[in-house]
Each structure stands twice: as C-alpha cells, then as structure tokens.
Specification:
This protein is α+β, with helices and mostly antiparallel strands and about 500 residues long. It is about 45% helix and about 10% strand.
C-alpha cells in the first residue's frame, strides 16, 4: 500500500459547517443540509480535490447542530483485503486525534472518491466500494461515533449510502454541481479560501524528469560526482564544498527572484528549469547530501527568501533522475520544510511523503512529516534556525568573517542535530559544543554514526552497486511517493504519533 494518514485542518482553525468565516469582524454561516451540498463541500474541507481517497470528517455538536472538525484522508488500497484495516486506522486515528485536542467527535461523515476503471461505470464503482464504507461505519460505531452520512463520488456523480428512503435517490447517482457555483463556494471565496487541484498535480511538480533532458542531467550528476563526492568525504574539503554549494544556491536564488513572474504552475516550473543549468543542479544535489549543508540551506524558510527557495528545491527534486532518485530526499525535505514554514501544509505533507518514498530512512523528513501531520507550529524550528544563524554570524564576525551565507561553515554547526531533530540546547551551550566538535559532530574525532545509523555526511556506495560518481547505490526502480503514518524514532518535542486530526 502507498497510503499515509493525512489530516487537514483542525477543530480550532478548520471548521466549515456551519461555516464561520471571520472576515472584517463578521461571522458568516453556511448550513449544509443535503448529500449534494455535502458532496460539493468536500474540496473546501480538504483544500484540494481528492482522488482515490477515503475521507472521514468529524462533526462536533454546537447547539444541536453539527460543526465540522478534523479531517483525515487515506488512499483507497487496491486490494479489498486491506479495506478493513485501513478503515480501522482511519477511524481510530481521527477519533483519538480529536480526543487529544479535547474535542471528541459526536458524529462522522464519510466519503469515498474514485474514478471508474476502463469499462466501469460510476454506479459500479459505488457498489464495489460499498464493503469499504460498511467497514468505516462499523469501525466508527465501535468507537461510539455514528456515521450519519456516507457519500460516494465518481464520474461526476454522487451517491448516498445512508438514504433511508427507497427510490429516493437516482440509481445512476445525482450529478455534481459545477465547481465554484455552490453557496459554500461563494462563501469560501469571500473568506479567501482556495481549492487547489488534485494531489497528483501537486506531486507532478516534484517528480523527476522523464524527458530526453533527463539523460543529460544524469550525465551531469555522474560528472559532478567524480569531483564533488571525494571532496565531501574528505574532512579538509568538506567545508569548502559546503560553502561552494551554499554560494551557488544563493546565486541561483537571486536569479530566480529576478525572473519575470509567469502565470500557472507548469509555466512557472518550466521557466525555473530553464534558469538552472544541468551542472549547477548536479553540484547542488550532491552538495545537499551533506546534512550540515542541508541544514544551512534550511535557513531560507521565511520572508523574501522563502518563495525562490521553494522554487529551487522543487527544481532540484525534478533533477534527481535515473539512478539518483534517492538523492531527492534532501531537496524534497527542504521543499516540505519551506512549504510548512510558510503555511502550506498540503504541499509540505506531499513533499515530505515523497522524500520518505525516495529514502524511507531519512530521519529529518520523518520528523518534519510527523510534526506537520500533528499540527505543530513550525515557529519553534524557525527560532532554532534563526538562533543558529545569529550565533554563527557572531562567531565568524569575531574572527573577521562576514555575516550570512558568504562565510565558511562553522565546525559542527547543525541546528537540527546529527539525526535531523531540533536541538533543545540553549544557544550558549550550542556555541561551546561547536568549538570542540569536528565536522562530523564528534568530540575530538570523527563519529560515523548518527541517530538513524548513518554517517552525517553523504553515504558511500556499497561495493559494486553504484555507478561511477554516485554516492548512492543504483536501484532498480524510481523513487516513489510512498507515504508513512508514524515516526518510529526520535520525535520532536510534543510529538506522540500521527493518528489523525482533531
């Protein structure tokens, strides 16, 4: 399965029904009464149009009327044998997540969304997914939460599984309304809420090239690996490579920021691809395999730096082609971090899930993915990164360096720690450690192991498994967007596990 628990919004800031949109100090309520209105509401509940999805939406009582709370989504497993376990996971995750926030749901609304296969009708999809919906209703019932409505959306039509009146609903389903024409759509537009496209469209911006240019990019990665990787693995050259990587990244950020804006995601990505040469992308991708360099790059996460940085990390993820699919974990994680830092939880979750698909053991991605799904505030990590940059600038200023990314990397500087976890050490203690540690983070000698059992620098290839110049073993398949539910080790402070949203 390639499913992951995904939450969208919370009972505190994601309520829609009766939707209270706070704009200019006024509260506007939209009451949804029919299955058709609930079907039209789904994209506004999630912020995008789901595909091949199971969605549960919590309802909380307010003066006898249901108010939307947390939402949880999973992809529909291809095999029906997995449906019962997925239904249990989704129901348990949403209920316990709500309880953790002190707002146990009184009721649920369930959705299943899937387009027909070739030769299949929407009605056949509805009938095929009926056992899945029954499992959802059963699991919610075991948790003492009633599913008051269950809706199937397929082929532009919807069906209610809960209508008690025989012959009330058309056998072939009811047509969905035109997007953007419902009362809820108007209220959402007035409140400034936007509905993104599908998750597939979002992932396309982060997937590696499959064009003829991919061969040229892979050749550039091979060539860069012959010179860059040995220098990274050498203690004397590692700091130089880090600084060269950051300097190059900063020049490209300026290039991206100065480019004339274009409308649309695809034209924007194509423009960025044209602004980034193959050899530049190769140098950055390989340089970011060093965790210290990656953590320095993570400091471009807010203000005027954030937008061009996100564009650069997306562009680098698209360049991790061929046998370099695993290298995408670094730029994908950076893309997820910047998206989360700037308030785009949707892209953050997708980018971080894809990073884990490229490298399931990439601990920084696992920690950020869990924190994002838990609804934690990224400000605590931003504060650590700001403090690290300020401390580094102070140390370097004392020895004649210049503030910012034009100065050498301080020894051992790694605000996220060897395993990518946010450090809870006060700045003063952090400065003392940096003066005594080597670049690998050890006291007086290199230390190859970190929390996830890996070197802090780029991994060396297994003998006989890597192509010349590659720091990663060759794999037989592409790095996918496999999704993960929990972080098994080293959670950030306050993380207890991903179990849905309240």
């Amino acid at each position: 399965m390639t499913n992951h628990s995904e939450t969208t919004g919370s009972s505190e800031n994601g309520d829609i029904d009766p939707t209270a949109y706070d704009r200019h100090g006024a509260e506007h309520q939209v009451t949804l009464r029919t299955p058709g209105e609930l079907a039209d509401a789904l994209p506004y509940l999630l912020g995008y149009r789901p595909e091949d999805s199971i969605v549960l939406v919590a309802l909380h009582d307010r003066a006898g009327r249901g108010r939307f709370g947390g939402r949880a989504r999973l992809g529909i497993p291809a095999g029906a044998d997995d449906w019962a376990s997925v239904a249990q996971q989704l129901a348990h995750g949403l209920v316990t997540g709500s309880e953790r926030r002190g707002t146990r749901p009184e009721q649920m609304i369930a959705y299943v969304c899937q387009e027909p296969s070739p030769g299949e009708s929407g009605r056949q999809v509805m009938e095929r997914l009926r056992p899945l919906v029954q499992s959802l209703r059963r699991e919610c019932g075991l948790l003492d939460v009633t599913v008051i409505e269950a809706i199937c959306i397929s082929d532009g039509r919807f069906w209610s599984y809960c209508c008690p009146i025989e012959g009330c609903c058309p056998v072939d389903g009811s047509p969905m309304g035109l997007p953007g024409t419902s009362v809820l759509a108007a209220a959402a537009t007035y409140a400034g809420l936007q509905v993104r496209g599908t998750l597939r469209e979002l992932r396309t911006r982060l997937l590696p090239w499959e064009t003829a240019a991919a061969l040229e990019q892979e050749a550039a990665l091979d060539a860069a690996g012959m010179t860059v990787v040995p220098r990274i693995l050498d203690d004397a050259g590692r700091a130089e490579v880090a600084q060269e990587t950051l300097d190059l990244a900063q020049r490209i950020l300026g290039r991206f920021a100065a480019a004339p804006p274009v409308s649309g995601a695809l034209p924007s990505d194509l423009r960025d691809d044209e602004l980034l040469a193959h050899d530049e992308a190769a140098t950055l991708i390989l340089g970011l395999q060093d965790r210290t360099t990656r953590d320095r790059a993570a400091e471009w996460m807010e203000g005027e730096d954030a937008v061009p940085a996100l564009r650069l990390w997306r562009a680098l993820a698209r360049r991790c082609v061929g046998s370099y699919g695993e290298h995408a974990a670094a730029p994908l994680t950076l893309a997820g971090w910047v998206a989360w830092s700037t308030g785009d939880d949707l892209e953050a979750r997708e980018a971080l899930a894809m990073a884990l698909g490229a490298d399931p053991g990439y601990l920084f991605a696992r920690l950020l993915h869990q924190a994002c799904n838990e609804g934690l505030d990224p400000e605590s990590i931003r504060r650590c990164l700001r403090a690290e940059r300020k401390d580094r600038a102070g140390v370097e200023g004392a020895i004649g360096g210049e503030e910012g990314f034009d100065t050498p990397v301080a020894e051992g500087a790694n605000v996220l720690g060897g395993d990518g976890a946010a450090s809870a050490t006060p700045p003063a203690a952090s400065r003392r450690r940096r003066r005594t540690r080597t670049a690998d983070g050890a006291e007086g000698r290199p230390r190859p192991a970190v929390a996830d059992g890996r070197r802090s620098g780029p991994r060396t290839p297994a003998q006989g498994t890597a192509r010349p110049g590659s720091t990663r073993p060759r794999t037989s398949g592409k790095g996918g967007s496999r999704r993960h539910d929990t972080c098994a080790e080293g959670p950030l402070p306050g993380i207890k596990g991903i179990e849905g949203d309240g």
